[in-house]
Amino acid sequence: MGFVDRAEHEGIGRRAFLGLLASGLVALLPGSALGVQRRRRKTTKAIFRLSTHRRRTCKACKGHAANRFYRTRKAAGKDRAHAGCNCAIVKQEIDRNLAKQYFKGRRKVFDLRSEVT
């Protein structure tokens, strides 16, 4: 007589019931209990800057690039020091909380020279 046949005639035993109950509870636990990693919130934010490295640049470009942070690549492209500026647009990671301070509201450009955080 197998387990299923015996269960039909005698009902389910205490040990079998507790085993099924435990396996059901394990199935309901969050993914971390089953070895599945949860996604961690990133602590950094990607921002964009103008870079003068390895380029022949004027003082206006150097001062502009050293002090400006941009929320998007498009904003960096539109805010050049002058019409002939050929500075590269580079991506940089900064602390997420600092990025929130720099880009409060819908601000797209942050300048270290004139802004106070």
Keywords:
117 residues, 2 domains, two-stranded antiparallel sheet, two-stranded antiparallel ribbon, 5 helices, 4 strands, 38% helix
Number of domains: 2
Number of separate helices: 5
Helical/strand content category = alpha+beta
Count of strand segments: 4
- Overall pLDDT metric: 82
Q: How do the strands of the widest beta sheet line up side by side? A: 1-3
The sequence of SSEs as H and E is HHEHEHEHE
Amino-to-carboxy terminus distance? 77 Å
Task: Summarize the helices and strands and which ones pair or pack.
Elements: H1 3-10, H2 14-28, E1 44-51, H3 59-67, E2 68-70, H4 73-78, E3 88-95, H5 96-102, E4 109-111
Antiparallel strand pairs: 1-3, 2-4
